[in-house]
Amino acid sequence: MAGNDWINSYLEAILDVGPGLDDKNSSLMLRERGKFSPTRYFVEEVITKFDETDLRRSWAMASSIRDSEERNTRLENMSWRIWNLARRKKKIGKESQRIMKQKSGLSRVPKPLLADMPEELCESEKGDTVSEISPKGVSTKGGMKRINSVDVLKNFATQQKEKKLYIVLISLHGLIRGENMELGRDSDTGGQVKYVVELARALGAMPGIYRVDLLTRQVSAPGVDWSYGEPTEMLTPLNDDDCESGESSGAYIIRIPFGPKDKYIPKELLWPHIPEFVDGALTYILQMSKVLSEQIGDGKPVWPASIHGHYADAGNAAALLSGALNVPMLFTGHSLGRDKLEQILKQGRQSKDDINTTYRIMRRIEAEEISVDTSEVIITSTKQEIDEQWGLYDAFDPVLERKLRARNRQNVSCLGRFMPRPIVIPPGMEFKHIVRNSGGAGDDSDGYQDGPSTPNPPVWSEVTRFFTNPHKPIILALARPDPKKNLTTLVKAFGECRALRDLANLTLIMGNRDNIDEMSATNSAVLLSILKLIDKYDMYGQVSYPKHHKQSEVPDIYRLAARTKGVFINPAFIEPFGLTLIEAAAYGLPMVATKNGGPVDIKKALDNGLLVDPHNQQSIADALLKLVADKQLWLKCKQNGLRNIHLFSWPEHCKTYLARIACCRPRHPQWESCAVGYEYSESHSPEDSLRDLNDLKISLDGFINDHGSVDTSQKSDMNSQSLKTKSSVGKKLENMSKLSFKEKPGGNKAETVGRTGSQDTIEFLGLRRKKTVFVVAVDCGLNNDFANIMKMILEIVRVDKKGENLGLIVSTASSISEIHSFMQSNKISSSEFDAVICNSGSDIYYPSSSSEGSPKSLPFVVDSDYSSHIDYRWGGDHLQNSLVHWASSLGGRKRDQEIVVACDSTSRHCFTFSIKNLESIPPVKDLREFLRKQSLRCQAVYCQNGTKLNVIPVVASRAQALRYLYVRWGMNLASTVVMMGDYGDTDYECLRGGIPKTMVINGVCNEARKLHSNRSYPLEHVITYDSPSVVQVEGCKKDQIIEAMAKLQV
């Protein structure tokens, strides 16, 4: 045993702290008269953990180097006395064991009976000693074996073996890769990066999962490793045997290019570029859907079973993708904006305006509200996060959520209210790299024994080189130098507690750095504050703060702290997850952690430490001292952590995760996609399609599923005759859904072809073949300015005489009747357009040569597939009643004046109100707050210069309508040009971004500026002005428009 270095360090520590063993008032108790004695701690460590031969060796060595100095004489005497104490304790221990053995009566058990007993104890027989039993009576031996056992997933695998699910995860900010993660490199590359990578890898190894894609940002910038610019990275599976076989199976990191190509920017600056990511991700998912259709879908598209957004930015992106594809969405907030805002305001260092400028906090909060509106499941790590953090949001009320859930179980109407289901799923951890001591959780020898053939890891010397006495217990903190991590309070607590400094060392692992001056201003300020505190309290030789470490070396740092019988601390003001606490527990480290956030539930599950108020410096010091000084408490916390750590394994996490996905109502596009990348059979021709359709002279209002039966959830007012008719033609429509969609050369813009949805005919556009599509989205109303713009664009489009290259779409808040009247008055033919997006994006119409089945016999036909597509969480009549009540309440405030008046509308998914006085109505942010607090999931849009209010479904918008046309018909978004004014309706920001190019006509729609005067966040936080895909045009003149088109390369 190589124990003399440890013994000598303890003896040196005893001499440093005093009083010596000759103190007349001393005793063998660690605490005497309410005071802690570090001397007793080190004496007991030496007596308990080291053999008497090693103690005698230390005494002999001290004797050989004896000189006249008093310190060496004391060292010799102390070594001799401790050696004798150890011999006496060993003798007493042997006698005690002999007496206990006699009392147990095992010596009187007959040999035949002992022969029948198995060598291994059964679960009910384990835990007879104090070190093997917990207060809950659960065995501590063999706890880690449960984690890697195949039996844990046996039943689950049997149930899931027939499924082949495709799951999409999204995490946008930070630098994400599968190996050698640079955690702590910056404030965006932290625990969330590790979490999402390990979640993707763990899900990819689960039974029933065919493929998992983790979508993130592609970064090819100076100073950033080249690996972050690779479009695809396959994650190494946890176990090769667990993975499905197939070309595309497994888990992958998919990097989507968006934002500045040559810059790595912080998450606060990503907001203007989110639409670009959504468009790129949509293209990727459509392509992957086709690939998977060939591998596991029998030729049918395989859509994601769910899209899971992580953090506010990815949640916003997931909400848009979920709406565009009509698939379920899950959301994990990780760290919530409202809670962070409260925490920063409590510190009193910044005003709300300063916080918003620095962190874009209000845009982040709005993204989180949008995520709640759209999500079916909110995944949290703790119940405290649900009640105390999510409860701060307008869109979520824990009490109302439970009431709505109860009504759903009883099949009682929820009156148009919807609430996502919050689920607590503790974060998982991968244990395969953890090497357990053979003695089990109760073995306390691993901290002091070194195998003769295993050298110390290099990172140990990097950590301990700071210490005068490296064998004291290590208090370990692992966090970025970020103000919210509260490391300065920890250093103050350590510096001002003399007993703690005598007993332990402090190690701060604060990411990697080369030069403090090159760090971000926030991180460098925290680090400099810590260095000043070390100097102030003269803690040189007691605090370690290495500059570099690899992610692969973190386990070795945990092992070092556990070996010294140290403690792991997380003093953050709030900790959403606490993954480091779980990792520390897996290596046998007790914890001291903040009482705000995830550690509450972690402590409840593991029972391996203490919680503290992060604002209370004294409570932090007391908790650390208590855990380090009380060896019995330390050992109990270690054993509890090792015994219960399996609760946080990835298999347990994924089982619960997949169970929640299975509970989501299956949703996916209700048609066979004609999007780009899909090729159809040559055996069917357009003529066959037309011939079949001409035989069908019925209007189908409901959706007919693949079995030919009617899904009544799509239309509640079907009559019995239509049901019978639809059932009779269901099989024929099923066959029609597989027909090829080919276009006749030349000719008109609209061609009648097969339809795979809820109506028998539709005027299909050749959007897929258009080289450029113009979208006129100028929000000045249907006035003369709009007429002039339309006529000018039509002149440009008509240059393409056959209509083969240029397409035209109008996107407006007006109804289809108003648009038709406008066209008639300005002598514009409806056939000039490929599509009309009206009612703020809640309806899509196509020009039709026949007015049969059209509203008010107009020459347009509605896309009823789109109507079904956006029906998610639409409140219908209940929502309308609430809006009417809200409008009447506004009139009551103004002495019965009518301020907002409901208008008659033929649209099923748009409730329109006329605004008499814009000055008297609340800003749109207040209306959104009102609707969210009522659990009414919709979007409110002030439009036409504030004279009109449209309320539409939460997944509908004019931008989403363009994405629908891409998914449904394959319209090329990259060749689409959106023409806008310099201001517009309150949904203006949604159209300013993404892959489509933008042409801003300055001087148009200036009156709409007032709609944006009272926003939660400025437009500058969410739109970009320096993008090459955005051009500004001064005035609306044909020559300038053509010049701008040349700049956009269209």
TrEMBL record:
Molecular function GO labels: sucrose-phosphate synthase activity
Domain named Sucrose synthase first GT-B: residues: 166-397
Pathway connected to this protein: Glycan biosynthesis; sucrose biosynthesis; sucrose from D-fructose 6-phosphate and UDP-alpha-D-glucose: step 1/2
One Gene Ontology biological process: sucrose biosynthetic process
EC number: 2.4.1.14
Compositionally biased residues, Polar residues: 710-728
SUPFAM superfamilies: UDP-Glycosyltransferase/glycogen phosphorylase
Reaction catalysis annotation: beta-D-fructose 6-phosphate + UDP-alpha-D-glucose = sucrose 6(F)-phosphate + UDP + H(+)
Record-annotated Glycosyl transferase family domain positions: 469-641
Family matches, as InterPro entries: AreA_GATA (IPR013860), Glyco_trans_1 (IPR001296), SPP-like_dom (IPR006380), SPS (IPR044161), SPS_C (IPR035659), SPS_pln (IPR012819), Sucrose_synth_GT-B1 (IPR000368)
Segments forming domain Sucrose phosphatase-like: 772-1002
Domain Nitrogen regulatory protein areA GATA-like per the UniProt entry, residue ranges: 58-84
Sequence intervals crossing the membrane: none
Keyword Transferase among record annotations: yes
Keyword RNA-binding: no
Keywords of the record: Glycosyltransferase, Transferase
Family statement drawn from the similarity comment of this UniProt entry: Belongs to the glycosyltransferase 1 family.
Protein name: Sucrose-phosphate synthase
